[in-house]
Amino acid sequence: MDHRPKLYATIAFVAGILIGLGFKHLYPDLQPVERRYRRRSGGVKKKTSANGARLKDDRIDLEDYEMHSCDSGGQCQGQGQGQGHQSAADVTEGIEACIGRTPLFKIKSLSEATGCDILAKAEFLNGGGGSPKDRVALNIINTGSHLTILRCMPSDQSIEKSDLLLKLGAVVERVPPAPIVDPMHFVNRARTLARDHTADPNRPGRGYFADQFENQANWQAHFEGTGPELLHQCDSKIHAFVAGAGTGGTIAGVARFLKSKLPYIKIVLADPQGSGLYNRIKHGVMFDLKEKEGTRRRQQVDTIVEGIGINRVTANFEAGRELIDDAVKVDDDQALAMARWLMERDGIFAGSSSAVNCEKGIAAVRTAQKLGPGKRVVTVLCDSGTRHLSKFWAKAGNIGGKSDSELDNIIGSQI
Prior knowledge:
Helix 1 packs across helix 3 (about 135-140), helix 3 packs across helix 6 (about 215-235) and helix 6 (about 215-235) packs across helix 7. By secondary structure, the protein is an alpha/beta fold. The protein has helices at about 5-20, 110-115, 135-140, 160-165, 185-200, 215-235, 250-260, 275-285, 315-320, 330-345, 350-355, 360-370, 390-395, 405-410, and strands spanning about 25, 40, 55, 60, 65-70, 75-80, 105, 115-120, 150-155, 170-175, 240-245, 265-270, 325-330, 375-380. Strand 9, helix 4 and strand 10 form a beta-alpha-beta unit. The strands form four sheets. Strands 7-8-14-11-12-13 form a six-stranded mixed sheet, sandwiched between helices. Strands 1-9-10 form a three-stranded mixed sheet, sandwiched between helices. It is globular, with a radius of gyration of 21 Å. Mean pLDDT is about 75; it is low at about 20-70, about 80-85 and about 295-300. It has 14 helices and 14 strands. The longest helix has 18 residues, at about 5-20.
């Protein structure tokens, strides 16, 4: 029996989580692979009931749904059966086929408050690891008869992330936060472990350092997947795309694709406090006031937010930097308040980077205010709050207590 589909699903699941958290090495040879998977999509065209069925007099007719696949130009072709029956084409080959084609939905509270359509791409619904990094993992990983994962991550990240990896069989090494020039920085440590694995004749296979910050398979995954999906889902009507940056792969890949199709679109960076990317865009200098000597509370980016924000130039971010039109700085208090707002008003239990995006909500709202009513602003919800309970949500507190009654109290001064 061919066990490769199960193997691919396991690799994509573990590696999607792994790359989203930091670095890994694995063996044997891994190479980029192109993803072209289909998922169900479509829409109801006539008056519908709450469950999406089309109403006709006293009868209920089920609306036909079609399978869609988007090419690099944002064009989609459909096939499939209708009348409420699942066709053979709807059955995917393993969970890795559920990576990509994530839903796009309107954040109702923010849209109503701004007069713009503020849409969020639910990247936390990617099959596998539940983050945009599933796309990257699938773009890097192709095959392998055996997989061992050794994960290096900063010790100040939420414990849920390392606990999850341990449950999946990974060997996790939590290292103290350190500057990138330090050999014990988690990036450098991962590189060393991969090299040592390859050099050890007593260990099978070879080490592989994924190098997500510099590996251009990162931004290419979003150029080939996320960008075309957004163009299709929005019917080519997008006025602004807002995203944060850690590796920079998402914003760079989407910007490169959308700018090639929609030259007028505004690309906006959402940056947490302590990160230098805001000043990189605004002033060409990689620096943040909270990073100056004597004021820093942590050894890395000085923020409670995980997954975005950085104080060094990466190849992935530079691949799209010149296409970024604006940047919005969001502090921790705003990110925490926005996370509570989204949960209380919209039922969206977002992680820290998602709150920034909608920090990116904050950034998305400020962008909408600048563009004016009637425009469409798209952002990304990268992660669920379930991976941020011990840190970000412990600070945010439980839902149901006192909260800001006006969005302006969260956003601050309007732009």
